Amino acid sequence: MTEIRAVQGSIDRVDSDLIVVNLFEGVSSPTGATGAVDKALDGAISEVIRVGDFQGKRLETALLYTRDAIPAKRVLIVGLGKREDFDLQTVREAAAISASRARDLRIERMATIVHGGGAGGMDYAEAAAATAEGILLGLYRFDADKKSKEDSKRRELKTVSIVELDGGKIPALQEAMHASEAVAMGVYRTRDLVNLPPNVASPSYLAGVALQIAEKFETVSATVYSREEMAQMGMGAFLAVAQGSYDPPQFIVLEYRGAERSEPPVVLVGKGITFDTGGISIKPSQEMWRMKTDMGGAAVVIGTLEAAARLGLPVNLVGLVGATYNMPDGNAYRPGDVVKAMNGKTIEVISTDAEGRMVLADLLSYASRNYKPKSVIDLATLTGGCVVALGKEIAGLFTKEEGLAESITQASKSVSEPVWRMPMYEKYKELIKSDFADVKNSGGRWASAITAALFLQEFAEDLPWAHLDIAGPVWTDKPNPLTPKGATGFGVRLLVKFLENLS
């Protein structure tokens, strides 16, 4: 990961391969740090504005060469857009754009001002954190399985200095950078896990990662339960899905203790289907490769636990991960089967491709039996119906808990990971009524995201519970400033902010 450090000084006097300044749209006479650089360059920035080559539009850039007028070799101007639309997401994206441009230029050292550090009422620490966060998220790349990595190594940005003239702000800047690095590490972990091919990111692999995290942090413990132990617990729904898996299913319990033992924990539950063929109800082969992302919820839970440990958040946190393949093996479970979940309820299997909710059913039952939590949040790439409803950038939020819904929504807005609250329409419970069991695992095509949430509610029971369907935003085919093509890590920053707000 690129090293980010705080430096006291004036940006126009920093010796670097590239320095980054900014301008709002419509500004004709640069002021502040940008003005100081403009003056040192004998009005070069003003000239670029005057001739119309740079207008300050959001994420617009212009590159200038200093010709030894200042210690830095290059100046990058980043547009912040209209002042009235300026927010923390603009800060993140402006920082990300500048870091990506620096890497494209094959430079090793970059220095930047805090985007928004002096702008209209924006909190300095938040602007500093967003600047650091944007740089780190924008620089992420996954090339673990490429034979040649020499080119990417040459293009790697090694150090970024965030420059602040006021020495009194340096402690806040350093704290913000530390927090951003911790969160970015959690996002990186999540992206890596989802990006990995399914023959690597197996259930056993996820268990190994959890154990490594527990070994690294004294505040984290990990327990991995075997198939036999799950059978003793009565996890019939989870084990039904795992019947066709050649790699043994793994029930992973991660516990982070950042508060007194008496403090009720937040429990995060992650769907970890490390590859989903659909089982006997097999999916179409076209685009089936994308089903390696079906463990995205589990990856978010693992990444969030790691970020919480790095931050030392003053909360108690539990991560429950159910990891298995869903395969059409000769031992695989079948449509028409009836299985018993951990809480004693029986489930008629209508579709073996509605497997994620089967795993989550037992994990939610485990949470109810073993903890008295402040809240329980499950994350799952659960339904294509949610993608149809909300597209690929918004997660569906399902809960009957008004306070929990508000807390999750506020956290999502803070980090620009959008969620949309969906109805828990009681009448649709009729769609999952079974003639042969307490409930069936699929209500059909219509309102499929809602009926999936209603199914989970049967096992969340009286828990203060919310369900996040992240099937859409788990992956992107269109790179953006903060996320290259591939796994997004959506959910980690949202949950960290949620936990920070609790404390």
Count the beta strands.
Answer: 19
Strand order of the largest sheet: 7-8-10-9-13-17-14-15
The CATH class name of the largest domain reads: Alpha Beta
Low-confidence stretches: none
Instruction: Round the mean pLDDT to the nearest integer and report it.
Output: 95
CATH overall fold name of the largest domain: Aminopeptidase
The CATH architecture category of the largest domain equals: 3-Layer(aba) Sandwich
Helical stretch tally: 15
* CATH superfamily heading of the largest domain: Zn peptidases
What share of the residues does DSSP label as strand, in percent? 15-25%
> Mind telling me the C-alpha Rg?
24 Å
Question: How would you describe the overall organization of this protein?
Answer:
- This protein is α/β, with parallel strands linked by helices and 503 residues long.
- The protein has helices at 32-40, 44-50, 88-104, 124-139, 150-154, 170-195, 203-216, 227-233, 236-242, 296-311, 356-370, 384-390, 402-415, 448-460, 492-502; strands spanning 3-8, 18-23, 61-65, 74-79, 109-112, 159-164, 220-225, 250-257, 266-276, 316-326, 338-340, 346-348, 375-380, 395-399, 419-421, 439-440, 465-469, 475-476, 486-487.
- The chain has two domains: 3-163, 3-Layer(aba) Sandwich (Leucine Aminopeptidase, subunit E, domain 1), CATH 3.40.220.10; 185-502, 3-Layer(aba) Sandwich (Aminopeptidase), CATH 3.40.630.10.
- Strand 14, helix 13 (402-415) and strand 15 (419-421) form a beta-alpha-beta unit.
- It starts with a strand and ends with a helix.
- The mean pLDDT is 95.
